Amino acid sequence: MNFNKVEFYAAYGKYSQIPAPERIEIAFAGRSNVGKSSLINKLFNRKNLARVSSVPGKTATVNFYSLENIFIVDLPGYGYAKVAKSEKERWSELMEGYFADEQRRLELVFALIDMRHPPSADDLNMLDFLTQSEIPYVVVLTKADKLRPAERKKRMERFAEEIPYFEQLTCVPFSAVTGEGTDTLREIIEEVSSDE
């Protein structure tokens, strides 16, 4: 799979705009400012494929990227308080619509959590939702480069207490700065898409 050959396909602001699924999808979900855009850019060797912003809540659409026989789906960040109620409702309708559509061929979700902090209530709700919905997921612990080895060890021990069934989950520490975890995530994507 050539990860350099990814292309932006389309962005949708309302669920009703998203066309019927035509290939398998791998989605990226996480709270605002968790580093989703940086991760997507790193995975595909691009600087500006996904727009990176220091302002949380910048991705307000569901963005589709075409990679060979699959779609990579960048979902809007959740949990950012400083947006209008109407905007929150639109996001919620967009996310719920996307996940509730049984026709979608959603094969995997990468659930991003900032490695430096305990998971937020929204993070835990997302993991619980994915578990209950029986949607396969991998936890990606972002910003791994920001922790010293001892801090990192401590966070991993805490995650085992904070995240239900943590020991049974596939967890990938990731850094957009050092590239740690990039190859592992690519291997997972290739494995999922090769089942197609």
Overview of the structural elements:
With 196 residues, the chain is an alpha/beta fold. It has a single domain, classed as P-loop containing nucleotide triphosphate hydrolases (Rossmann fold). It contains 5 helices and 7 strands; from the N terminus they run E-E-H-E-E-H-E-H-E-H-E-H. The protein has a 7-stranded mixed sheet with strand order 1-3-4-2-5-6-7, sandwiched between helices. Strand 6 (137-142), helix 4 (149-162) and strand 7 (171-173) form a beta-alpha-beta unit. Residues 54-58 have low confidence and may be disordered.
Attribute tags:
196 residues; alpha/beta; Rossmann fold; globular; 21% strand; seven-stranded mixed beta sheet; single chain; 32% helix
Briefly say what this structure is:
The chain has 196 residues and is of the alpha/beta class. It has 5 helices and 7 strands; from the N terminus they run ββαββαβαβαβα.
Helices and strands, in N-to-C order?
Answer: EEHEEHEHEHEH
The CATH architecture comes to: 3-Layer(aba) Sandwich
Radius of gyration over C-alpha positions, nearest whole angstrom = 16 Å
Remind me, CATH topology? Answer: Rossmann fold
Low-confidence stretches: 54-58
Q: In the CATH hierarchy, what is the class? A: Alpha Beta
Largest sheet descriptor: 7 strands, mixed
Task: Figure out the total of helices.
Answer: 5
**Quaternary organisation of the protein chains:** single chain
| General shape | globular
Please tell me the overall pLDDT: 88
CATH superfamily: P-loop containing nucleotide triphosphate hydrolases
Structural class: alpha/beta
The largest sheet has its strands arranged as 1-3-4-2-5-6-7
- What is the rounded distance between the termini? 13 Å
Which range does the strand content fall in?
15-25%
Extended strand count: 7
Domain tally: 1
Helicity, as a percent range: 25-40%
